[in-house]
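Support request from a user on the community tier.

User writes: "When I paste my structure tokens into the form, the page sometimes reloads and wipes my input. The last time it worked, I copied everything first. Here is what I submitted, just in case something in the input itself triggers the reload:"
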């Protein structure tokens, strides 16, 4: 009987939550005046280009018609999110030229991890701007904004947010892929799995730090199916039976991503309890990406294994936009395909404008969200 009551109250709670989610949709949309984004190359709009080395052509060719610091031929999911709110695309915090931070800032940097880094980018291939550093930068940005707004002589105030915009902003976080990718190339899969709780704990600390600074609305992306990245699949010759799934993705790698996501979702549930004024949405990006990969043909795309930009033939691999001199004096160029809109994978790791647009359509209307509310209503705690 005790058991029946547990089941019964479980059902009741579900109904109440659903009712809340339905009610929330009837409330007026949130008026986010700014977006602050944290992450890796999936949402870097210029950090690595500004701070370390420029992204080269043909990145940006489809939408911007020039390289604009993003890895991809066009827009990233964060661009579609900004667009949804009528906000301009986010300037990278590190970009000192031509930037406006009036409506937010982007702290994401390609190659960034959740866990703090001690190695240089040359040693590890990882960005020095791990999530803890991105949050330090945010703290500095916020403090400096407050200072400059008080400074009578400072003349560029219209490039800064208003102090009251900080708590009312949308805080987007999309990070974790490099923690997994680096783990896959440096330790065993078992060791990587064992380190996930540490990685997730570092994530939680940074959400708490942002909350302590006044952030209230969090929109947290989980990690994608890393075992489906075309660059990984390139190097796999004669896989043993069962190594790949029915869509040609590395099963064990996707299992690690799924376990990361399970733990991320659990920490989000805990953070909701610990941070009473936070509205935290967990967004299933994995489902969107795997959904497209497993339905590529029906959705009008070529398989994820086909890379639009780069040269990968006869054992020669040249990255997107790269040039490789050959011993006989000729060279190979990592050119882009004719029609990127047919491709899911842009360069083997990053997605095309068309794929990101497809993901964003699901992301924005709440199809991937827990609780199941659209991004326009993310400020309501259910
Ligand atoms: C970096 O160094 C600190 C202090 O020595 C250590 O606690 C941490 O685990 C190191 N991080 C990495 C990613 O190696
Ligand atoms: C140079 O070498 C590449 C790779 O072996 C080959 O495909 C190409 O035809 C060669 N070009 C000339 C001019 O010999
Ligand atoms: C969201 O949009 C997608 C794609 O446009 C559509 O398939 C889906 O049914 C929509 N979901 C909701 C909850 O409106």
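"...and here is what came back when it finally went through:"
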């Amino acid at each position: 009987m005790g058991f029946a009551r547990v089941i019964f109250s479980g059902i009741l709670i579900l109904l109440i939550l659903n009712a809340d989610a339905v009610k929330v949709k009837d409330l007026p949309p949130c008026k986010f005046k700014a977006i602050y984004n944290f992450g890796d190359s999936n949402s870097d709009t210029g950090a690595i280009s500004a701070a370390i080395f420029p992204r080269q052509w043909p990145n940006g060719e489809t939408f911007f018609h020039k390289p604009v610091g993003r890895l991809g031929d066009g827009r990233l999911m964060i661009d579609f999110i900004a667009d949804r709110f009528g906000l301009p695309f986010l300037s990278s915090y590190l970009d000192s030229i031509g930037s406006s931070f009036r409506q937010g800032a982007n702290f994401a940097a390609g190659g960034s991890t959740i866990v703090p880094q001690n190695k240089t980018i040359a040693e590890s291939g990882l960005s020095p701007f791990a999530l803890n550093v991105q949050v330090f930068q945010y703290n500095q940005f916020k403090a400096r904004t407050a200072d400059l707004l008080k400074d009578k002589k400072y003349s560029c105030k219209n490039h800064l947010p208003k102090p009251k915009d900080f708590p009312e902003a949308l805080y987007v976080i999309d990070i974790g892929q490099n923690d997994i990718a680096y783990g896959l190339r440096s330790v065993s899969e078992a060791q990587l799995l064992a380190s996930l709780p540490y990685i997730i704990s570092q994530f939680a600390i940074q959400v708490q730090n942002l909350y302590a600074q006044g952030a209230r609305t969090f929109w947290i992306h989980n990690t994608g199916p890393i075992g489906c990245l075309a660059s990984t699949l390139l190097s796999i010759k004669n896989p043993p039976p069962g190594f790949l799934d029915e869509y040609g993705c590395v099963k064990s790698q996707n299992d690690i991503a799924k376990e990361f996501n399970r733990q991320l979702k659990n920490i989000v549930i805990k953070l909701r309890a610990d941070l009473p004024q936070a509205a935290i949405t967990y967004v299933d990006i994995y489902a969107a990406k795997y959904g497209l990969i497993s339905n590529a043909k029906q959705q009008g795309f070529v398989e994820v294994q086909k890379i639009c930009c780069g040269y990968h033939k006869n054992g020669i691999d040249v990255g997107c936009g790269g040039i490789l001199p050959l011993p006989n004096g000729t060279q190979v160029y990592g050119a882009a395909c004719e029609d990127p809109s047919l491709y899911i994978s842009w360069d083997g790791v990053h997605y095309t404008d068309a794929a990101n647009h497809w993901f964003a359509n699901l992301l924005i209307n709440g199809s991937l969200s827990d609780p199941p509310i659209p991004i326009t209503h993310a400020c309501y705690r259910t």
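Agent notes: The reload is a front-end session timeout and is unrelated to the input. The radius of gyration is 21 Å. The chain is about 40% helix and 10% strand. Escalated to web team.
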